[in-house]
């Protein structure tokens, strides 16, 4: 047994309203740059729908993930090492820009510079690739909320697998949203297909990263990842992917997408797993067994033997303790309501999903039944084969039994909690019907419905002893990175010797760590407490009027009765 | 003049090549990439790129064989000059034309595909000019020697001179009598070597042969990250549209 820790995420799809806040904040944080205009590390897909890039789930076409060979071993679906090297000059299975979408901007300048005339000037869309006029025909969420109807939804590779009759039943189609980030797999096929060895899995927290200095732009990882979550920066010629916001995770903050999630549907926590068992589990013969196989790899952090093994593997005690409190462990292993996305790709993904019960409840309500009644719910879960089979196509390689069990549990929880809400006595038989106890129902309900920030995100910070290595703490001089101003370089956004896409990197600009922490956990205005009084408006939460927001008032010569009046700008600096 | 061209110049360019590579690796690992344009255009690339690359690899093997292996060695294992010459001309021509056609396809694609041309820097264009010259002149001299004349045995002249560079006792006199075509080919080739470290051609030095032996999934510890150096390059400011390509000499910035 070789214990390793993995930072993992669970998303509760019942709560996703498809607002795309996660996508937008992620884009602002990571991909609002040239070369990655088309890239969304986090995207929200409507289901059924084609996804982003279009039909990425169709592995017959895109050749992502692993296949099990006849001898029972795994090899990348797009080919082994030798084949990879021979196809290195032109990757035969690389999605084109059109499969994502052609990024564009608008010619806003024209609005200002157009000569006076009878017509109102318009800002034409311009391609960000060529600068020419372009026609906008697709984007990352073009088919949002089933826009485009049956024509586009029918292109959904998962729907196609389910059965033919489903496609004609568009009128009965159910809709839910699927937010996706990189899965940070236990058995990442992007890393396996990288000829340069630039993609690696961090041994401390399992985050999969691309070393930008080692990437040579062979672009095999784009094909290798079945979720198509590695992207090619077409300006720098390097692969980029979701980083699980590692600079934030390292100091105990959740990822940007989780932090800003309006529905609070994301959970982040540690999972301990047996690294020696991964290869065998990913190679089980029957695809339907992959869900169970992956669960069998996880190690119970409450088991003293596991704790001892984890200590031997140099996992610090606070990490073990965090693994014991992990909401992800609870949702996957204890309550058994979270499922992996496409286990059949054999990459052992580590962003799991609680499948949505709401399509079922909606149908019950629309047909005049009581959507909270357990018997109705159980019956409906069985009767509504379309959602069930579709969800199974997403989460369990087509095996409906685990999905049915999860939906029954969620249904039972609704029924159980409604009785409490209405003041009726607790009905243990409801819990027993899905193999749970009343107390466990309460726990699950608490975790799913009312868990606070600290319960949803249990993230142990990286060790204090190498804290000065961590970017957001930065006890070293922030100007002293190589090529920075402290070293005589050009500073942030500085130019390398060959223009914008070369040279050594500048560290990320960061918000004050303690201030953020305070703001997230306190209910009142937070005083930054740093002299001299200056307010970073980006950190200001809009509450109260922090000292320093306005310049200090000139000496109270004019009576000074009205203290609410902002001070006069102090031009000579004597007021300080 | 002879000494300048065939002694000083080669050593100078090789020094620039080696020094340049070290400098580039030290200061610009991030810029060390193929800068593939496949994302923009795939159909033509899938013909042109393998044709060019496999062709040039064969040409490389031919050059290594012809320049580094002394004639006496091949004759010692029983390959006569005539056999060697036939083989070299035949395989060399096939490889050479593969390279040439592949390159023509790639350059045409680069010029005619909007996004690809928009992503072509001035540096790229200069590199293409030098590379094309080297290949065309080399192919042309070989063909002329074999079609018009009855072959030119460069293994008697150029090869010993080339090897003498490595023995550090260069002999410029041999080169004086070499046909002009070959002379131009050699001079431009050394120019290309000097230019090499400063172009996208550096990707040739990162051919991923280690992939064949390494385990599929690499693990790396966070602790090995050196201080404040972890990467966040590629920041080029907010997206902006390249200028439309009405003028053919536009650059990326």
Structure description:
The complex is a heterodimer of chains A (576) and B (253). Chain A is an alpha+beta fold. Helix content of chain A is 32%, strand content 11%. Chain A is built from 25 helices and 15 strands. Chain A has helices at 21-30, 59-62, 81-86, 97-100, 109-113, 149-153, 157-162, 164-168, 189-193, 220-224, 246-249, 256-259, 278-282, 290-297, 304-312, 317-324, 327-334, 358-366, 374-383, 385-395, 400-421, 428-433, 438-450, 453-456, 513-521; strands spanning 3-12, 43-47, 66-68, 74-76, 104-106, 125-127, 176-180, 199-202, 208-210, 230-233, 238-241, 266-274, 298-299, 339-340, 351-354. In chain A, the strands form six sheets. Chain A has a five-stranded mixed beta sheet with strand order 13-12-1-15-14, sandwiched between helices. In chain A, a hairpin with a 5-residue loop joins β3 and β4 (74-76). The longest helix of chain A is centred in the C-terminal third of the chain and has 22 residues, at 400-421. Chain A starts with a strand and ends in a 55-residue tail after the last helix. Chain B is mostly helical. Chain B contains nine helices and one strand. Chain B has helices at 2-27, 45-68, 71-76, 81-112, 114-118, 122-147, 158-167, 172-176, 180-195; one strand at 219-220. In chain B, α4 runs antiparallel to α6 (122-147) and α6 packs antiparallel against α9 (180-195). Chain B is globular and about 60 Å long. In chain B, 30% of the residues are buried. At the A-B interface, α3 and β8 of A face α2, α5 and β1 of B.
């Amino acid at each position: 047994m070789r214990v390793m820790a993995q930072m993992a995420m669970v998303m509760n799809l019942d709560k996703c309203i498809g607002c795309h806040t996660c996508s937008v904040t992620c884009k602002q944080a990571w991909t609002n740059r040239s070369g990655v205009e088309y890239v969304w590390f986090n995207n929200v897909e409507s289901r059924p729908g084609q996804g982003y890039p279009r039909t990425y789930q169709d592995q017959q076409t895109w050749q992502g993930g692993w296949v099990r060979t006849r001898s029972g071993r795994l090899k990348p679906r797009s080919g082994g090492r030798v084949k990879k090297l021979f196809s290195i000059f032109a990757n035969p299975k690389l999605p084109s820009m059109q499969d994502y979408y052609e990024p564009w901007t608008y010619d806003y300048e024209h609005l200002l510079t157009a000569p006076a005339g009878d017509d109102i000037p318009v800002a034409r869309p311009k391609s960000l690739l060529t600068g020419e006029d372009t026609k906008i025909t697709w984007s990352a969420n073009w088919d949002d909320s089933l826009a485009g109807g049956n024509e586009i939804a029918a292109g959904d590779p998962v729907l196609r697998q389910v059965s033919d009759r489903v496609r004609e039943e568009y009128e009965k189609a159910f809709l839910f949203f699927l937010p996706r980030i990189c899965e940070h797999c236990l058995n990442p096929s992007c890393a396996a297909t990288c000829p340069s060895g630039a993609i690696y899995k961090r041994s401390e927290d399992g985050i999969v990263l691309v070393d930008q200095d080692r990437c040579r732009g062979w672009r095999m990882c784009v094909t290798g990842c079945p979720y198509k979550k590695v992207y090619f920066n077409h300006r720098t010629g390097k692969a980029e992917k979701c980083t699980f916001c590692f600079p934030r995770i390292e100091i105990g903050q959740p990822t940007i997408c989780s932090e800003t999630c309006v529905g609070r549907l994301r959970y982040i926590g540690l999972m301990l797993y047996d690294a020696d068992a991964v290869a065998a589990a990913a190679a089980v013969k029957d695809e339907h067994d992959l869900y169970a196989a992956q669960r069998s790899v996880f190690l119970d952090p409450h088991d003293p033997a596991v704790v001892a093994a984890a200590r031997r593997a140099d996992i610090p005690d606070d990490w073990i303790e965090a693994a014991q409190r992990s909401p992800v462990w609870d949702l996957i292993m204890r309550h058994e309501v979270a499922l992996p996305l496409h286990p059949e790709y054999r990459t052992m993904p580590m962003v799991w999903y609680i499948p949505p019960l709401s399509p079922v409840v909606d149908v019950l309500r629309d047909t005049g039944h009581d959507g909270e009644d357990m018997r109705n719910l159980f019956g409906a879960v069985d009767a509504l084969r379309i959602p069930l089979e579709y969800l199974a196509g997403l989460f369990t390689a087509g095996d409906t039994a685990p999905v049915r069990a999860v939906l029954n549990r969620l249904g039972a929880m609704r029924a159980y909690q409604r009785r409490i809400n209405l003041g009726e006595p607790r009905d243990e038989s409801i819990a027993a019907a899905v193999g749970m106890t009343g107390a466990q129902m309460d726990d699950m309900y608490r975790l799913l419905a009312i868990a606070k920030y600290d319960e949803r995100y249990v993230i142990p910070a990286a060790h204090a002893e190498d804290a000065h290595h961590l970017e957001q703490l930065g006890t070293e001089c922030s100007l002293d990175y190589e090529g920075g101003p402290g070293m005589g370089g050009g500073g942030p956004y500085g130019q390398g010797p060959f223009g914008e896409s070369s040279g050594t990197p500048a560290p990320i600009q960061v918000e004050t760590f303690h201030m953020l922490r305070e703001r997230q956990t306190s209910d009142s205005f937070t005083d930054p407490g740093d002299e001299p009084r200056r307010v970073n408006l980006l950190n200001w939460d809009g509450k109260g009027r922090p000292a320093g927001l306005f310049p200090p008032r000139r000496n109270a010569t004019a009576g000074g009765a009205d203290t609410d009046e902002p001070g006069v700008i102090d031009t000579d600096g004597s007021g300080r | 003049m002879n000494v300048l061209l065939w002694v000083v110049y080669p050593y100078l360019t090789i020094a620039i090549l080696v020094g340049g590579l070290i400098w580039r690796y030290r200061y610009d690992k991030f810029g060390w990439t193929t800068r593939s344009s496949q994302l923009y255009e795939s159909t033509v690339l899938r013909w042109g790129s393998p044709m060019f690359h496999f062709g040039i690899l064969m040409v490389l093997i031919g050059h290594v064989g012809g320049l580094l292996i002394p004639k006496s060695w091949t004759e010692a294992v029983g390959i006569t000059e005539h056999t060697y010459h036939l083989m070299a001309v035949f395989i060399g021509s096939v490889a050479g034309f593969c390279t040439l056609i592949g390159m023509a396809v790639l350059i045409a694609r680069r010029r005619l595909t909007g996004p690809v041309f928009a992503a072509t820097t001035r540096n790229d264009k200069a590199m293409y000019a030098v590379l094309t010259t080297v290949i065309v002149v080399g192919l042309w001299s070989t063909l002329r020697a074999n079609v018009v004349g009855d072959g030119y045995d460069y293994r008697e002249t150029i090869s010993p001179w080339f090897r003498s560079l490595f023995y550090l006792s260069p002999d410029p006199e041999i080169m004086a009598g070499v046909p002009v075509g070959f002379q131009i080919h050699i001079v431009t080739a050394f120019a290309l070597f000097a230019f090499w470290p400063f172009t996208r051609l550096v990707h040739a030095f990162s051919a991923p042969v280690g992939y064949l032996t390494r385990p599929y999934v690499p693990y790396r510890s966070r602790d090995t990250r050196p201080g404040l150096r972890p990467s966040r390059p590629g920041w080029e400011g907010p997206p902006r549209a390249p200028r439309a390509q009405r003028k053919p000499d536009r650059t990326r910035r």
